[in-house]
């Protein structure tokens, strides 16, 4: 394992290897759980990388799978040890979507559909502050400040000079016209969006109102892809109390096809940039009144 691979990805790769060993043994997760006197859900969480894996867990599973090569056992044990290290985001305390941050940090490309707001990786600080406060009115000022800082720290992936995250964003027109913070905040946000859209690794398209019904009406989602062939793509759907991660090939394919339809129905890059600029000018005129 490379030393610069973050703990979320370490857990994910280790889980994939443990699943492979189970399947080679011809056992179900339920059978393994019965042998180890644990719940089936624990085995599933270990395999999908959503739960920290201890070296004892790895030792017990290798015993069940009758792994005789000690080098394999030692390698998996080391992966388990490394997976318990903390990523930069842990310094901010309990972050609800920390698993997603870990995946985003290691992703090679990200495709996002946002129907309501400007995507977090392209938000200005004033816009992010207004979004966080409005989305969590019950949170303390300290909690909201922490969430804003995490969001802005995540943007280093698209600002990196070397190997930046390749980002493709489809925004519904509603996200441009929803006044978040103030009209001045919106003007600055849209001007920044235009600026960022000119970066070679960032593509922004707008899905205009007059498109009518489209495949994205069910809501926001993201597709993360990784450079390592061992890491399968992930569809991320954010929820209020829990998030959904889809990794099965047919699920990823379904959302990928949906995204291609959204891209085809959206304005092209030049038309999208022009619309964003026009709406920014509208906010500027309204603010000047």
List keywords for this structure.
Helix-turn-helix transcriptional regulator, DUF5753, alpha/beta, 289 residues, six-stranded mixed β-sheet, Lambda_DNA-bd_dom_sf
Q: Largest beta sheet: what is the strand line-up? A: 3-2-1-4-5-6
Number of helices: 13
- How widely separated are the two ends? 59 Å
Instruction: Spell out the helices and strands N to C.
Output: HHHHHHEHHHEHHEEEEHH
**Structural class estimated from helices and strands:** alpha/beta
Strand content: 5-15%
Low-confidence stretches: none
The radius of gyration computed from the alpha-carbon positions, rounded to a whole number of angstroms, is 22 Å
Number of strands: 6
Question: What multimeric state do the chains show?
Answer: single chain
Portion in helices = 40-55%
Integer average pLDDT: 88
Task: Describe the sheet with the most strands.
Answer: 6 strands, mixed
Shape descriptor: elongated
Protein name: Helix-turn-helix transcriptional regulator
InterPro entries: Cro/C1-type_HTH, DUF5753, Lambda_DNA-bd_dom_sf
């Amino acid at each position: 394992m490379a030393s610069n691979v973050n703990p979320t990805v370490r857990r994910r790769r280790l889980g994939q290897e443990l699943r492979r060993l189970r399947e080679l043994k011809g056992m179900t997760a339920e059978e393994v759980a019965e042998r180890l006197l644990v719940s089936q859900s624990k085995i599933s969480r270990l395999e999908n990388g959503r739960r920290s894996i201890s070296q004892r867990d790895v030792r017990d599973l290798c015993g069940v799978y009758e792994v005789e090569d000690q080098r394999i056992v030692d390698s998996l044990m080391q992966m388990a040890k490394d997976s318990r290290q903390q990523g930069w985001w842990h310094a901010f305390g309990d972050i609800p979507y920390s698993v997603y941050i870990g995946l985003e940090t290691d992703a090679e490309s990200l495709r996002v559909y946002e129907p309501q707001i400007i995507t977090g990786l392209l938000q200005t600080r004033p816009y992010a502050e207004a979004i966080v406060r409005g989305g969590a009115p019950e949170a303390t000022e300290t909690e909201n400040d922490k969430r804003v800082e995490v969001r802005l720290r995540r943007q280093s992936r698209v600002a990196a000079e070397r190997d930046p995250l390749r980002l493709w964003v489809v925004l519904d027109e509603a996200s441009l016209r929803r006044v978040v913070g103030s009209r001045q905040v919106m003007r600055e946000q849209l001007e920044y969006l235009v600026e960022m859209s000119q970066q070679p690794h960032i593509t922004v398209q707008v899905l205009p109102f007059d498109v009518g019904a489209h495949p994205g009406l069910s809501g926001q989602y993201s597709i993360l892809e990784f450079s390592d062939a061992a890491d399968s793509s992930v569809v991320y759907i954010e929820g209020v109390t829990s998030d959904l991660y889809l990794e099965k090939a047919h699920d990823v394919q379904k959302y990928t096809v949906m995204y291609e339809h959204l891209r085809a129905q959206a304005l092209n890059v030049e038309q999208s940039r022009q619309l964003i600029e026009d709406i920014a000018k509208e906010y500027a005129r309204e603010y000047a009144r």
